[in-house]
């Protein structure tokens, strides 16, 4: 059957497995409901080897016929025969008995069920009183509650295991894990069917259920041991996993043939030995994965879940019978170890991609449970409240819609919120960068920060890749994601462990990274095209200025009638040359030459105006230290405008110019005395000059400040040397 449904879609496989499990569970429920009940809670008195009445239900037809504390020793048949009642009659787990006592129990159960099915049963008490009790089918019996509780544990294991297998049905490790889930389901369902019997069920049915229970419990142990033989690394080419499963079947056959005195040796001791063997197999896996960090991470989580669950199962349920002692905890509490095992594996799927499954496995199950909940609510309302089908369906849909689905949506949003927030922020940052990028370099420098923002990797480092490398790729184990370079002379990037190591890279990450890279690559192409167009336009303007305006100024210079006109023409020609240089983005000026030129400019202007110059320079100048032409021109014009303001709007005796240079900035300070009250017209002119200086400073990424203290005016400008 399993082979036949592996070709279906995962959701179809899930539905088929679930329907099969529902059918089997329904059969068990139907059988439990069909067994006649007395409405009496019995307690086993092992010291006297009799049954004691613990409680009689008020709704039972036998209420008042027997009282709590009364002991029952036998059942009298119509033919005068006696069926002895002993403590083993209601034993929750008959496989704790010896085979001899077990066989006696089966015979007794067959005889008792015949009496119960007649509708009445004659019970002999310890004081030799014969009480005729009525037996009838009861929907709300304790046997049904017992079955549902035990089956619930099995359903958890089955759904987790089936979900893993359904999405990867061809792999041996998922098959083994699915087998363990089916075995747990079979174990708890059979236990729930016979373990909660009030007084008796059919001995033949009990024998079949016990046989299935022993086979299932042995296969739970065998399948989990076999799982670690092949996962996360197959230990050898020898089919050890099949041998382990076969040993489980052989142990079951020895149990069926009753080759020992009790299941203590054919079942429980085998499982304890299997647990020890499993620890050894797990230890070998640990050694094999020492150089495989991904497999080691998966093994750690599997070992934590499976080993902890199996340890609890073994110590609480299997070990006491193997040692011939009673269990310390009730089975209902001991079976919590099943939840530890299978819910732990489910958590590992979302954290470590166990069995190479993605987080959508969990989200799909959330969706699947939504549909199941509607059906279960509908059934509960029909049978529990006696509502009509249409009314029950409407009410169940309302309850699911108002409570379950909002909870499910909140949980799914919680699962995907961090990554969605990261992606939203990264997309916003990308758009901001694209609109504000003045050059391709801005986009290239922002690219690694964008990747950090989006994926929060534990590490990101540049790498060299071949020219034919894929634009974006995720490794098979999900640890690494590589992105090819955005430009030919740029490195690619290698990202490891997404979300600060909390998860692995998934196909969703691949899609997002591909989208971000495609947008960035297109933006880089657009900016480069714009830069090329702007450069071509600059070259055209430079040619026009040089050939046309430059030629006309040279003509004026050659035809000047006096020295004043010639000086004006030379100044205009120098300004034109500076403008042409400023248009050339690749042109640089040596800083040491610029400082000398600024000193000469100040000397010449102060000499012309008859004002004392106080020049100072501090800092280290290196021969190869350069600034852009735009920086040189703007600084020259700031100094020129500062001197002009001093001469035009004051009557200075001196002008002090100080230039300071460090590793990051150039500091310019121009101070003059002789400030007097200015007319309104002159104030407006002064403001225009100050605004021009401020604009030139800010154009270079710097700061500008002007202030007057008494009769002294000071201009401060701070210009970053890597600006412009």
Give a count of the beta strands, DSSP E runs of length 2 or more.
17
Taking the alpha carbons of the first and last residues, their distance comes to 74 Å
If you compute it from the alpha carbons, what radius of gyration comes out, rounded to the nearest whole angstrom?
45 Å
Count of domains: 5
Helical segment count: 20
Can you put this structure into words, describing what you see?
The protein has helices at residues 2-5, 10-34, 99-117, 142-167, 172-195, 203-230, 240-256, 263-288, 293-323, 331-334, 336-352, 360-384, 389-436, 440-455, 498-501, 507-558, 563-583, 591-609, 629-649, 680-699, and strands spanning 40-45, 50-56, 71-76, 82-84, 120-125, 130-134, 459-463, 472-474, 480-483, 492-496, 588-590, 612-618, 626-628, 654-661, 665-672, 703-709, 712-720. With 724 residues, it is of the alpha+beta class. It has five domains: 2-32 and 143-357, Rhopdopsin 7-helix transmembrane proteins (Up-down Bundle); 35-138, Roll (Pdz3 Domain), CATH 2.30.42.10; 359-415, no CATH class; 419-525, Beta-Lactamase (2-Layer Sandwich); 588-720, Histidine kinase-like ATPase, C-terminal domain (Heat Shock Protein 90, 2-Layer Sandwich), CATH 3.30.565.10. Helix 5 (172-195) runs antiparallel to helix 6 (203-230) and helix 6 packs parallel to helix 8. The strands form four sheets. Strands 1, 2, 3, 4, 5 and 6 form a six-stranded antiparallel sheet that branches. Strands 12-14-15-17-16 form a five-stranded mixed sheet, covered by helices on one side. Residues 349-362 and 678-682 have low confidence and may be disordered. It is 62% helix and 13% strand.
């Amino acid at each position: 059957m399993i082979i036949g449904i592996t070709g279906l879609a995962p959701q179809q496989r899930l539905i088929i497995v679930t329907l099969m499990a529902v059918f089997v569970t329904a059969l068990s429920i139907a059988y439990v409901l069909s067994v006649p009940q007395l409405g009496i809670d019995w307690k086993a008195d092992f010291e006297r080897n009799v049954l004691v009445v613990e409680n009689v239900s008020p709704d039972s037809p036998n209420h008042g016929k027997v009282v709590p504390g009364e002991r029952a020793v036998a059942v009298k048949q119509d033919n005068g025969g006696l069926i002895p009642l002993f403590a083993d009659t209601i034993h929750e787990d008959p496989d704790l008995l010896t085979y001899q006592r077990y066989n006696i129990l089966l015979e007794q159960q067959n005889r008792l069920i015949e009496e119960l099915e007649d509708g009445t049963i004659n019970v002999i008490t310890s004081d030799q009183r014969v009480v005729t009790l009525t037996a009838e089918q009861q929907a709300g019996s304790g046997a049904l509650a017992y079955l549902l509780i035990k089956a619930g544990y099995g359903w958890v294991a089955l759904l987790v295991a089936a979900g893993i297998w359904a999405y990867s049905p061809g792999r041996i490790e998922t098959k083994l894990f699915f087998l363990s889930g089916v075995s747990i389901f079979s174990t708890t369902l059979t236990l729930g069917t016979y373990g909660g019997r009030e007084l008796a069920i059919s001995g033949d049915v009990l024998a079949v259920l016990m046989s299935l229970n022993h086979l299932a419990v042995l296969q739970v142990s065998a399948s989990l041991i076999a799982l670690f033989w092949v996962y996360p690394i197959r230990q050898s080419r020898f089919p050890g996993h099949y041998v382990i499963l076969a040993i489980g079947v052989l142990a079951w056959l020895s149990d069926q043939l009753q080759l020992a005195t009790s299941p203590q040796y054919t079942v429980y001791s085998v499982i304890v030995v299997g647990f020890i063997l499993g620890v050894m197999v797990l230890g070998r896996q640990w050694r094999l994965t020492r150089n495989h960090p991904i497999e080691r991470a998966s093994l750690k989580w599997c070992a934590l879940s499976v080993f902890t669950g199996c340890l609890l199962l073994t110590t609480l349920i299997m070990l006491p019978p193997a040692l011939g002692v009673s269990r310390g905890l009730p089975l209902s509490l001991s079976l919590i170890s099943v939840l530890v095992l299978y819910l732990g594996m489910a958590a590992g799927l979302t954290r470590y991609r166990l069995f190479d499954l993605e987080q959508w496995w969990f989200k799909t199950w959330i969706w699947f449970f939504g549909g199941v909940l509607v059906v279960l609510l509908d059934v509960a309302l029909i049978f529990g409240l006696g509502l009509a089908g249409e009314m029950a369906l409407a009410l169940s849909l309302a309850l699911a819609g108002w409570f379950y689905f909002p909870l499910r949506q909140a949980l799914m949003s919680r699962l995907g919120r961090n990554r969605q927030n990261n992606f939203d922020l990264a997309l916003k940052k990308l758009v901001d960068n694209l609109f504000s990028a003045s050059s391709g370099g801005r986009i290239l420098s922002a690219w690694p920060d964008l990747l950090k923002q989006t994926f929060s990797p534990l590490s990101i480092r540049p790498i060299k890749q071949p020219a034919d490398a894929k634009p974006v790729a995720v490794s098979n184990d999900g640890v690494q994601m590589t992105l090819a370079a955005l430009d030919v002379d740029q490195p690619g990037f290698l990202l490891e462990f997404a979300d600060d190591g909390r998860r692995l890279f998934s196909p969703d990450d691949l899609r997002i990274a591909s989208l971000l890279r495609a947008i960035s690559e297109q933006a880089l192409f657009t900016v480069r095209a714009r830069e090329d167009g702007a450069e071509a336009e600059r070259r055209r303007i430079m040619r026009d200025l040089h050939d046309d305006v430059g030629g006309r100024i040279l003509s004026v210079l050659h035809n000047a009638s006096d020295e004043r006109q010639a000086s004006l023409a030379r100044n205009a020609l120098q300004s034109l040359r500076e403008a042409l240089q400023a248009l050339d983005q690749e042109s640089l000026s040596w800083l040491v030459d610029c400082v000398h030129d600024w000193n000469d400019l100040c000397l010449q202007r102060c000499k012309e105006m008859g004002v004392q110059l106080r020049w100072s320079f501090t800092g280290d100048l290196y021969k190869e230290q350069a600034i852009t032409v735009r920086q040189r021109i703007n600084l020259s014009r700031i100094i020129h405008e500062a001197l002009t303001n001093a001469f035009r709007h004051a009557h200075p005796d001196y002008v002090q110019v100080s230039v300071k240079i460090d590793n990051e900035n150039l500091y310019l300070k121009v101070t003059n005395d002789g400030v007097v009250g200015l007319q309104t017209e002159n104030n407006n002119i002064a403001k225009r000059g100050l605004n021009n200086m401020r604009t030139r400073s800010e154009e270079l990424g710097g700061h500008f400040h002007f202030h007057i203290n008494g009769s002294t005016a000071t201009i401060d400008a701070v210009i970053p040397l890597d600006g412009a």
